[in-house]
Design goal:
Blueprint (H helix, E strand, L loop, with lengths): L3 E6 L5 H11 L3 E4 L9 H11 L4 E4 L2 E2 L5 H14 L4 E6 L3 H4 L8 H15 L4 E3 L2 E3 L17 E4 L3 H10 L3 E4 L9 E7 L12 H21 L10 H11 L6 H4 L9 H9 L13 H13 L4 E5 L5 H11 L24
Length: 349
């Protein structure tokens, strides 16, 4: 079975150019992060990507419940869907980094389900009760697209409660950090890492830059669970001491997640360097043959889309290397490899 190759990018000044490159390389979809304390705005970024590209799919990766009123989300989604007809997919999640970075816990799954139902109903043109009041999209022609607005709505579903919610909502697809525990029509698997060039290892500066943010994200998550838990990880005790020395307790979350899955801060670079060979064991870092083996196994388990998260100062180079490793280029680039694991030609529906 074939698997599509997509990418996930944070809103940034470079996202339009990065998305154009992803489209040129044949990536199936560009998912966009939603973490307002750390990056630019999700919806502005999606509008920029829509304007800069012609075919590649667009996705919220993921829209975080509780950050916006459901009407705001529905109106924004409708506007992007109008800019890029047939190309937008909405994926919603409870929020981890995005909410921890503003000092909040992820929203309860029940709240996520309620918001997804509300947004779906608003896009359908229905009257919806929100916070005890009736709401409906009422834009006249020229002020918004006609309802219903046909946008697939997915769920981030890596844990058992979110998986149960996805089943209850009967979503057409899920975005997850693990292989499926059940069959979904579409299952997108998030993976960070880098393609190792000949002679590279965990000490290579480029590899530290590219794989390091993924490694640091593990420490970020461990700290949110129990700050002292990071002491058992390489460099974790020193990292925690630096966090505690830099901020009062009520403000430490402001530093912990800075650069999350995008850029190594000086503090996180020390973590990545201290990781040693373990740096290469998380995410998908390896030679092209090793990455193809991982993708083949994922496809056999039911994954239909690999979503690569390039974390490096040179995102374009990382996108190119991953596309080449998992199938080759389209257009004027090198010929397509024989593997069935290939980037798609834009958005599959």
């Amino acid at each position: 079975m074939s698997v599509r190759l997509s990418c996930a990018l944070p809103p940034s000044a470079a996202i339009a150019e990065q998305a154009r490159e992803a489209e040129r390389l044949g990536y199936h979809r560009v998912w966009v992060f939603d973490s307002p304390a750390l990056h630019g705005d999700l919806w502005i970024a999606l509008a920029q990507v829509a304007a800069a590209t012609e075919r590649v799919g667009l996705g919220t990766g993921v829209a975080v419940a509780g950050l916006r009123h459901p009407m705001v989300t529905a109106a924004a989604a409708a506007a992007v869907a109008d800019l890029a007809p047939g190309r937008l997919t909405l994926a919603f999640g409870t929020g981890h980094t995005a909410r921890y970075a503003i000092g909040q816990r992820p929203v309860p799954v029940d709240d996520l389900v309620r918001e997804v139902r509300q947004v779906r109903s608003l896009l359908a043109g229905e009257v919806v009760e929100i916070d005890g009041k009736h709401c409906q999209m009422r834009q006249l022609p020229g002020f918004g697209p006609a309802r219903p607005v046909d946008v697939p709505v997915w769920l981030a579903a890596s844990g058992p409660r979110a998986t149960a919610a996805a089943i209850d909502l009967d979503v057409p697809g899920v975005l997850a950090t693990s292989v499926p525990g059940r069959a979904w029509p579409e299952h997108a698997l998030l993976r960070f890492g880098t393609v190792l060039r000949p002679g590279e290892d965990h000490t290579t500066p480029r590899v530290i830059d590219a794989a390091g943010p993924g490694w640091a994200s593990i420490i970020h998550a461990a700290w949110e669970g129990t700050p002292t838990a990071v002491d058992d990880l390489p460099g974790g005790e020193r990292w925690r001491a630096d966090i505690e020395a830099s901020r009062p307790e009520r403000e430490r979350h402001l530093d912990v997640h800075q650069g999350h899955m995008t850029t190594l801060t000086a503090r996180d670079r020390d973590l990545a360097t201290a990781a040693g060979p373990a740096l290469l064991t998380v995410g998908w870092t390896g030679t092209p043959d090793q990455l193809r083996d991982k993708a083949t196994q994922a496809a056999a388990a039911g994954v239909t889309e690999i979503v690569y998260v390039p974390t490096s100062p040179d995102v374009t180079s990382e996108l190119t290397a991953y596309a080449e490793a998992l199938g080759g280029f389209y257009g004027d680039g090198p010929s397509r490899a024989s593997s069935s694991l290939m980037p798609g030609r834009g958005c599959r529906r």
